[in-house]
Amino acid sequence: MNPAPAGLVVGWLTLHFGALIAAWGTRVAAGSRMEGILQLACFVAMAAVGASAWLSRDYENGLSIVSGVVLVAAVLTAVTDFRRTHEVHPLLHSAPNS
Q1: By Cβ atoms counted within 10 A, which residue in 1, 3, 20, 92 is the most buried?
Q2: Counting beta carbons within 10 angstroms of the beta carbon of residue 39, is it exposed (0 to 12), middle (13 to 18) or buried (19 or more)?
């Protein structure tokens, strides 16, 4: 195992935090005009995290495991509806204009 250079670790951290932020943005932007753009950004970020999980096997122990955990957390953040069950989604239950 080769130790990872400091610049690589900073880039690795930035990528992973960016993926989590993109997943959160996808959930927040649901139903808005930005939804498609943020979904694309989230998909690209998750693909990059998956690639970093594969590539980081040769560096520090555990980096690929943390990448996998971040990937799972990003997917769960993007697809899980965190609203309480009694809260109504404003777009699905809006009153028709009459």
Answers
A1: 20
A2: middle
